[in-house]
Every structure is written in C-alpha cells, then in structure tokens.
C-alpha cells in the first residue's frame, strides 16, 4: 500500500482520540480554559452524563470575533510564542489542541464576548457565536451575550460510532465528570461553582477563603477534619490539607489529590513523598486523605509530557521528594502523631525545661537518625500544638528525630512548617471516629499526664487494657502498645541491629532482570554499610554472601528488587531508611505482646511505664495505641 498524507478530517479525529477519551475529558479541557481566562464563576450543565451535552459557562476574559474563529484551528494558542515559553508554562492549557479536537467529534457551539470592550474588530460589546459540526465550520455570526464564554458540546462522538459505543453508563460517565470538576476546584476556593445534571444541581460551592470549607463541600465531612499546612524550602512552596491520625479511607480512589503549580497531576515522586510521610501512621490497606499543592518555578517542571497534561517531570525530582517528605512529616508531628512525654506536672512552666537530648548520628550510608534515648525523654511542651507551630524557636525537624532532607540545587533552605493556607480554625473530629476517639490534633492522648498515672481496671478479651484516669475511661490495645515500645527500642539501637550481619554458608543467587541489574550493579559496594554483602556476577545475576539480622528470612529477590527500583529512580539516600524502617516494624510486630496474651498486674504496669518513653500515639502499622471516652459520652449513653 503506498504512503500518503492523511486528509485533515481524519487527522482531526486521530488527534481527538488523544485528547478526548470521554465526556469528562471534554469537561476538563473546557473548565481549565475557563480558569486560564480568569473566571471566578463557572457553571457546568450536563445531559446524559455528558454524552448528549457538556456546557461550560464562565465570566472570564472572553474573546473577540477574530480570536473566537482562530481558536478552532489546530495548534492555535495565545499562551506560548517561542521555544522558551514552552519551558515556562504557567497556564493549565497551552497546546492549542483541545477546541479543534473536541469540535471534530461533536456538534460544537462557542458563544463569547470580551470582558473589556474595544479591540481590532471594533465594537466588542457584541458577542460572537461560532457553530461547528464534526470539525466543519457552519456559521460565524454576531450574538448578544454576557461577557465571558459559553461552550456547548453536544452529541459527543456522534460521527465516530466506534468510540461512542465504548462509553460507559450514564452514571459512570457522570461520576467521571464530577471528579473532573472536583479536581479543578479543590484548590480554588475563590471559585463560584455550580454543576447541574438534567436540571438537578449536584454541586454548589459558594466562594470562600477557607480551603477546608471547599474540601468539605466537595469531599464530605472528612474535609473539615483536615489539617491546613504550608511551608517553604528554598524555591519550593507547599500548601496542603493533611488528614490527622484516625482520618483515612478504605480505597485509594478519591483520597489523594496532588497538584503542581495549580495543575492536577498523577506523579510518582509526589506519591512516594506522601507514602514516606505517612509511614507508620495509617493502617495497612487504608489511605490518608490529602490535598497537596506544590509550587515550583515553571522552568523546574516539564508539563509537556502527555496530551492530557496530567503527567509531569521534575528537574530536581529527588530533592523535591526528600524536601516534601521531611516537611510533611514534621507538620504531621506538630498536629498529633507525636505526643511529647510529660514527666513534669501538667501545668508546670517550661522556662526551666532542659534542652532536648542531642541526636546521635547513625552511619551516613543508612540515612537514619536515632531517636532520643528512652532514659532521657524530652519534656512536654504544655502549649497546644497550634501555639507552638508558629514559634520560631521551636525545634527543627532534625531535632525531632527526622532524617534531614538531601540538599539539592533547587531546595536548599529548610524552614519549619506553619499554618497559613486557610484560616486556623480547629479541625472538627471525623464523624466516623465518634463517639470513641483516638488522639486528635487538638486533643491530648490521655486525660492524665502519663500512662503510669492511670488506674488499671482490668483486661478485656485478653486484648484491651481498661484503665481509668481523671474520671474517664481509657482503652489501650496491648499489642499496639507493646509493638510501639518494641519498635522505639529497636530504632534507638538500630546501629547494632544492622551491624549484626550473618555470613551465609552458601551464597544465594538472585536474578533481577536486565533493567534492575544495571541499576543495582554499580551500588553493591555501598550495601555493605548496612550488612548486606552482594556481589555482581554479570548479566542479571547477583550472589548474596551475608545478610543483616532483620533480613535473615527475607525474600531476597523482592528485597534486592526493591533496592534496585529505588536506585533506578535515583534516590539512594532515602532507600536504606525506608527498607530498614519496614523490617524494624515487622520485627516489632512479631516480638511484642500479642492479642490474647494474659498479662499480670506487673506486666501491665511495666507496659504503661514503657509507654511513657515513647513519642508516637500509633503502632508501627498506624493503628491507635489508646482511645478514651469522656464522662459526657457515658452520661449520654445512660440517658443521665
């Protein structure tokens, strides 16, 4: 078959396949165009889940007649002019493909009028109406309309039946449309938004300055329990809403919303940072609710990676990942995952409090920082978390036992997180957590100063310790508590745990595949620093001659494969810490008191004393250690 140039009509349909997957794709592009035009009021109208109609009306800058016609041409855009502009993109759209691609597979109507009268076409107080069908221009005429733009896309894929038959049910397509609007609106609380389907209002969000209010409007009650956080590191600026301990979801869908310079993206670097920040906080198979907006210079991120513009590449991705992890973890500690040990009276002043114990560095190859020794716990700060969050003299993340972020060319300055993205309103507790609640951002873990101050009532089902303190009921999960104590002690003695390498009688051979082998081979010498003697035999095969104690029963193919994956992604500084923390958590789980163990009064007293030396209120796998019920809840239950 001879080679020939495709006709323009077929080219447009192929291009439409890259940009327009379903009605939600159309809605995303039109919504982003409205935001780029400076709109503060956006109305969305849908029919049949967007299959029959997607209409977006905004009060943005609008267009004159010339621009209205020109925007229907392929690669026509007002947002870039030169090669340099392509690497300094600050708008959501820029390719100039969306409008002609959408128009080529629908019946398309554009009604627009400039917000500012005057221009090359003369009287811009008159609007312009452009009608197209299947990519063909039908009519261009003057029309009366309000300033702004209204785009109607009817009968999507009417001329591509093979694509239309693969659309899902109305309910499914509608759900995707609602998700597209939610993504675009979560970090724009100033936007006046309305979404109507078949004349029924599904979403109505009034403009506000409170990001948590917008999150609650779009995501439900959990949005009000999120923690607003903001911090900067050099030219990196981070705004986030983070879920505290006890607020998490069963499914990953709709739990994490990540943005770069206001653009919703799905990015592995950001996901890794969030996973590391929440390590040991969220239970297995549960997912934190997070809204993360990362601001970096446009030149440090490539947004021209995918036609849908939902993927990006960072110039300094691993420095960014480490900076995010450290900052987010520190913010979470400030708001409830870390409980300062109270060894002094509850209302004692802090003027004469001793300084925190100095941190003892582990070998640099591990990338770890040892917590303070249990024998010298840091004194409590009697102020509530929000009072100390803005204190410029408060300990830095490194002083709290966090591994320092890796210094990079883009993110050198490490500043303490502070609240500022939305007004500092106290988070409301999650309804799912009532009436018995774990520790919350503004609520101490216990009604008394220390665990040892509790009066033990008994043991329930050989699993829970029932205690009384200050007239309130405290319930402790004995396995979660013992696991946290054990993990803390392991972390305090990590150097000796890692140093106990065991020589294998016969080297074990591991094959990883060519890609992983190329990543791991140059780094095998550095693995000796944490007790892992691995030698490259050539091809994709490695021989393991010795292992550290925690790895004795590990699946070596999985272990080395994970190490190779981390190295392939260029983050050797954080890889050892993540792997070691995983194995230490596993060790703690299997060497601690279990559910079903009968504890003597001495065992219980010893466990309570040990808990006073531990600085986290959740176990190694993120489950709460203790919950408590106040007298008001008991009185409500007994109708007093």
Describe the structure.
- The structure is a single chain.
- The radius of gyration is 29 Å and the shape is globular.
- Helix 2 runs parallel beside helix 7, helix 9 runs parallel beside helix 10 and helix 14 crosses helix 16.
- The chain has three domains: 200 residues, Heat Shock Protein 90 (2-Layer Sandwich); 175 residues, Ribosomal Protein S5, domain 2 (2-Layer Sandwich); 196 residues, MutL, C-terminal domain, regulatory subdomain (Ribosomal Protein S8, Chain: A, domain 1, 2-Layer Sandwich).
- The longest helix is centred in the middle third of the chain and has 21 residues.
- With 640 residues, it is of the alpha+beta class.
- A hairpin with a 2-residue loop joins strand 19 and strand 20.
- Helix content is 29%, strand content 21%.
- The strands form six sheets. Strands 5-4-3-6-2-1-7-8 form an eight-stranded mixed beta sheet. A five-stranded mixed beta sheet has the order 9-10-15-12-13, with helices on one face.
- About 17% of the residues have low confidence.
- It is built from 19 helices and 24 strands.
Short description:
The chain is of the alpha+beta class and 640 residues long. It has 19 helices and 24 strands.
| Rg over C-alpha atoms, rounded to the nearest angstrom | 29 Å
Number of strands: 24
How far apart the termini lie comes to 88 Å
Structural class: alpha+beta
Q: What count of domains describes the coordinates?
A: 3
Find the CATH topology of the largest domain: Heat Shock Protein 90
Weakly predicted, low-confidence segments = 338-442, 571-576
């Amino acid at each position: 078959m001879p080679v020939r140039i495709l006709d323009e009509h077929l080219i447009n349909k192929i291009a439409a396949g890259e940009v327009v997957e379903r009605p939600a794709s159309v809605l995303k592009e039109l919504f982003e165009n409205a935001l780029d035009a400076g709109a503060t009021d956006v109305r969305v109208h849908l029919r049949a889940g967007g299959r029959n109609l997607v209409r977006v009306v905004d009060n943005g800058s609008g267009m004159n007649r010339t621009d209205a016609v020109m925007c229907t041409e392929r690669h026509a855009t007002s947002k870039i002019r030169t090669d340099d502009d392509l690497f300094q993109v600050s708008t959501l759209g820029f390719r100039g493909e969306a409008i002609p691609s959408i128009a080529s597979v629908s019946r398309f109507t554009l009604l627009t009028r400039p917000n500012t009268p005057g221009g090359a076409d003369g009287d811009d107080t008159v609007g312009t109406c452009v009608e197209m069908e299947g990519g063909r221009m039908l009519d261009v005429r003057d029309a009366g309309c309000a300033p702004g733009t209204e785009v109607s896309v009817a009968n999507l894929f009417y001329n591509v039946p093979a694509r239309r038959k693969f659309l899902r049910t109305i309910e499914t397509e509608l759900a995707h449309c609602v998700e597209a609007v939610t993504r675009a609106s979560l970090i724009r609380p100033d936007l006046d938004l309305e979404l109507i389907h078949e004349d029924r209002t599904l979403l109505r969000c009034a403009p506000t300055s409170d990001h948590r209010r917008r999150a609650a409007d779009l995501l439900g009650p959990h949005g009000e329990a999120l923690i607003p956080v903001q911090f900067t590191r050099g030219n990196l600026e981070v705004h986030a809403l983070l879920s505290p301990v006890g607020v998490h979801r069963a499914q990953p869908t709709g739990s994490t919303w990540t943005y770069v310079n206001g653009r919703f993206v799905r990015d592995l670097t950001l996901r890794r940072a969030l996973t590391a920040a929440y390590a040991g906080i969220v239970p297995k198979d549960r997912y934190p609710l997070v809204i993360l907006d990362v601001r970096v210079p446009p030149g440090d991120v490539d947004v021209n990676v995918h036609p849908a513009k939902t993927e990006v590449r960072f110039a300094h991705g691993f420095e960014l990942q480490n900076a995010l992890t450290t900052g987010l973890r520190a913010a979470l500690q400030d708001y409830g995952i870390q409980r300062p040990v109270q060894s002094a009276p509850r209302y004692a002043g802090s003027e004469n409090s001793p300084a925190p114990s100095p941190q003892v560095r582990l070998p640099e190859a591990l990338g770890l920082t040892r917590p303070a020794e249990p024998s010298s716990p840091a004194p409590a700060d009697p102020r509530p978390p929000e009072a100390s969050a803005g204190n410029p003299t408060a300990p830095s993340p490194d002083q709290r036992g966090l591994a320092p972020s890796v210094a990079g060319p883009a993110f050198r300055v490490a500043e303490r997180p502070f609240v500022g993205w939305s007004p500092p309103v106290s988070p409301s507790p999650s309804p799912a957590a009532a009436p018995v609640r774990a520790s919350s951002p503004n609520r101490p873990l216990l009604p008394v100063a220390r665990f040892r101050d509790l009066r033990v009532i008994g043991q329930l089902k050989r699993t829970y310790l029932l205690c009384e303190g200050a007239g309130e009921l405290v319930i402790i999960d004995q396995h979660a508590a013992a696991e946290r104590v054990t993990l803390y002690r392991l972390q305090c003695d990590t150097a000796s745990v890692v140093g106990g390498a065991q020589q294998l009688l016969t080297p074990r051979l591991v094959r990883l595949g060519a890609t992983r082998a190329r990543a791991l081979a140059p780094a095998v010498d550095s693995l000796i620093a944490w007790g892992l003697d691995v030698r490259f035999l050539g091809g994709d095969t490695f021989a393991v001659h010795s292992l550290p104690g925690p790895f004795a029963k590990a699946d070596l193919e999985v272990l080395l494969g994970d190490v190779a994956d981390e190295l392939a992604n260029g983050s050797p500084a954080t890889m050892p810490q993540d792997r070691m923390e995983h194995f230490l958590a596993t060790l703690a789980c299997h060497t601690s008191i279990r559910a079903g163990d009968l504890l003597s009064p001495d065992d219980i007293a010893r466990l309570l004393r040990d808990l006073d030396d531990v600085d986290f209120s959740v176990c190694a796998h993120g489950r709460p250690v203790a919950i408590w019920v106040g007298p008001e809840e008991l009185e409500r239950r007994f109708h007093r």
